[in-house]
Amino acid sequence: MSNRILINNISDILVFVKVANVRSFTTAAQLLGISRSAVGKSINKLEEKLSSRLIYRTTRNINLSEEGLIFYEHALNIIAEVEELESTLNKRNQIPQGRLRIDLPVSFGRMHVVPILFDFLSMWSEVEAEVTFSDYYSDLVRDGIDLAIRIGGNDDSRLIRRVLAPHRLITCASPDYLKKRGVPELPDDLLNHDTLVFLHQGMPVSWRYQFNNQYHDYRLKGRMLFHNSEALRDAALAGFGLIQVGAFLVGEQILKGELIPVLEPFCREEEPICAVYPTRRHLSPKVRKFIELIENKWQGKAIWESR
Q1: CA atoms lying within 13 Å on the CB side of residue 48
Q2: What whole-number distance in Å separates Cα of residue 166 and Cα of residue 152?
Q3: CA–CA separation, 217 vs 275, rounded Å?
Q4: Cα–chain-centroid distance for residue 13?
Q5: Cβ atoms of 61 and 24 closer than 8 Å
Q6: Confidence class of residue 291 from pLDDT cuts 50, 70 and 90?
Q7: Given Cys at both, which of 42, 71, 77, 182 links 15, Cβ 3.0 to 4.6 Å?
Q8: Residue 303 pLDDT > 70, yes or no?
Q9: What is the mean pLDDT of residues 49-58?
C-alpha cells in the first residue's frame, strides 16, 4: 500500500475502519461525530483512490468485499502506527530536550540566570545549552536564539515579552567615600562628586532621576569609565566614587553595608526584566519549562535585593 494513501486519506481510513467494525454508516457517523453523508463520501473517496469496491451495501446489511477485507487488515496496522507515532510525539512534546540557545545580559545573566540554568540542566538530562552573553539586543530570529533574558523593553513585533521581575537603578557608594566626601542630597550635587560611569557601545550612560514630575538625565564626566559593570561595582567598593547601576548588581553589597544607597527619593521606575522569545504558536518544552523555573525561583520579585 502506497504512502500516498496514508498521507492523503488517513481520515477516510479511520472512517472505513469504524464502518467495518460496527457494520453501519449511521452508527459510525454517530461515534465519529460526523454526518452519515460524510461517512459515505469518505468510503467513496477510498474506493475511487484504490479503484476497488471495499464495501457492499444494501438497505439492511454492510459487508466487506474481498478487497475490503485485505484493506481492513492493512488499515488496522496503519491506525496502530499512527496512534503509536502520536503517543511518541505527545511524550516528546512534554519532555524538555535538545539544545537550548539563550542570550543573556553579561553581568545579570552570569549572576542570576546561569545558576538557574545549572539547576535546569540537572533536572532535564536530555537538554543541552548554548549561552551567549551580550548587553546589546541581538536579533533572536536571525541568530536562531530560543530565548533571551533582557532588562527593558522590546519593540520587535516578532517577539513575545514575558515579565519576570521588577528592575530599578540604585545610586550608591562605599561608606568610606561618603564619609570623606559627604552624602549627595540632590541629583545636582553629583557635579561635585567623583562618579564612576558605565560605557555602552562606547558612550557614557547617563544617570537617570525623576523629580518635579519630570525625568532628568545627567551626563557625567566620570572619574573612571568601565565597559564592565562588575568592575564598576568593584571600583565603588574600593571607595573611588559613586555609581548608578541595577539593583541586581549591588543588592548583596547593600545588604552587607558595603555600599550605601543615596538619592533614593529621586529614583524612577525602570522597564522590568523580561523573558523574550520568537513568536510561536507552540512554545517548545525546553523554553517553556526554563521560563517556568525562573518564575518559580523569583516569584515575580527582585530577590537579589532581599537575600
Answers
A1: 8
A2: 10
A3: 27
A4: 39
A5: no
A6: very high
A7: 42
A8: yes
A9: 88
SS3 at position 25: helix
**Predicted TM-score (pTM) above 0.85:** no
Q: What is the mean pLDDT of residues 178-194?
A: 96
Which domains are seen in the chain, by residue range?
Answer: 10-89 (1.10.10.10), 99-161+273-298 (3.40.190.10), 167-270 (3.40.190.10)
Strand 260-262, strand 127-133: pairing: unpaired
Beta strands in the chain (DSSP E): 55-57, 62-64, 98-104, 127-133, 147-151, 159-165, 169-173, 196-200, 203-204, 207-211, 214-218, 224-226, 243-246, 260-262, 273-278
The answer, yes or no, to whether residue 83 has pLDDT greater than 80, is no
Query: Taking 80 as the threshold, does the pLDDT of residue 223 lie above it?
Result: yes
Supply φ then ψ for residue 103, to 5 degrees.
-120, 125
Cβ 110 vs Cβ 103: under 8 Å: no
Contact in structure between 2 and 42 (CB atoms under 8 Å): no
Which helix (H) or strand (E) element contains residue 125?
A: none
* Segments in 95-221 forming alpha helices (H): 106-108, 114-123, 140-143, 175-181
Q: What percent of the chain has pLDDT over 90?
A: 59
